[in-house]
Amino acid sequence: MVDKFSVGAMVRIKTDNPGDVKRVPHYIKGKVGVVQKFRGIIDNPRDHRDERPPLYSVLFSPADIFTEKSENDKVVVDVFEDWMIPQ
Amino acid sequence: MPEPTYHPHTHPHEPIKEIEELPEHVMRLLALGQSLGEKGITVVQDSRFKADELNAKGLTQGVPYFEKRFMAMRAVLSGKKVISESEWEDKRQYLQREISQKGGALGSFELGVMALTRLILKKGTVTQSTLDFNYEKMKARVPMSGAKIVAKAWADPAFKAHLLNNAKKAIMDFNPVLLEPNNGKTIEAWDVTHLEVLENTEKVRNVVVCTLCSCYPMGLLGQSPEWYTKEDYRTRIVREPRAVLKEWGTQVGADVELRVYDSSADVRYLVVPTRPQGTEAHSEEELADLVTRDSLIGVGNALSSYGK
With an 8 Å Cβ cutoff, are A78 and B264 in contact? Predict the structure, then answer.
């Protein structure tokens, strides 16, 4: 399995759902983050019935997402590949 | 009915040993859900969507967490025509009469779980032995498992390095019972989700949340505390983590980077808190007693002493 985005790459999260039921938290939609880790495809038949794209761990700065000033804080979210656009 | 006034964090960072077990009927409910899941009848996703649906209709307002899950489970089951809501209601009333004739009494949630279990067994959807097996498995999932892993990581740097690099493998090598309490005969969500262990240091503090639902490393920590599942925590901890922690009595220095990890169905996180000072001579068992559930989620610290 090849990762489309490498660690350290900047990515923007789409605002519209590219699939049917795959979810991402609202607060990162349209925002830019940095890829931290490639997790690959996770086969999880007990949780979801559908097959899913590879998953990446992406780091965001709340200072970019929210209006609150919090420069020393970070948020890490696991995002499916089809939600990500190269930045 | 308005939602009761709710304080997100009512426990003062209680030690692992003092965390109360969930009531018997809640364990029975979890075992039932697990057994139905193994049959492919209710996958977690279905229940989650059903719960959202009930919530959107305003049907679960003010309803306690496990009762909400119970409602969602019944909705999935009647949607799939496994049992109907009226069958269940009839059974519940029947049981109520039966029990009160014997001079007993049960709460309505308890009765409801019993009624659903009886119906499912009668229909042969799951067997008593599967149910019993899963009941034992649920009971074996306790936060002490997480505390033992942290104590080992504090005491053994090589284990800690392995744990941070490949958590499930490291735990399997250390004590497989912690990961699979009953040497699970079946594959379930917890067996296949990624587990990542995050180390707190003087420079970095990690905090775990699930903003979309309430994903939690239940194989190692048991069922999540109620505040973890509440909207208040789930929305605020990503926006203003420092303020939330401060309210809960956890000070984070301005020079410390605060990392909030948003869990998902596929990835779960466990925090290794910083080791309290003055514990160099402690045994692993004594160290485990210092761990609090809150410290494993990252919102609290380990205790500096316990007992003595």
Answer: yes
